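Apologies for my clumsy wording, but could you write out the amino acids of a protein and the tokens describing how it folds?
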Amino acid sequence: MDAPKKSKRGFASMDPERQREIARKGGKSVPPERRSFSQNTDLAAKAGQKGGRNVDPAKRSFSQDRELASAAGAKGGAASHKPGVVKSV
């Protein structure tokens, strides 16, 4: 059976060029001197090290599914370097 078709709303309803125009502005509403990570690299480093720690260890998908973790590791950024190409493992 086919899933019911959802109506596009908000960002999804815009034409691709308008979406790109908005996306290009990301973060520019805050001046560089007010961006905390650009002012404090130690704060940025600590935040990066904490990634995912707010999630209960028992609920972390990679700790529950080693095959999923292995597949993600095998991809190793390939998807981000070749737009539209997804490697299957």
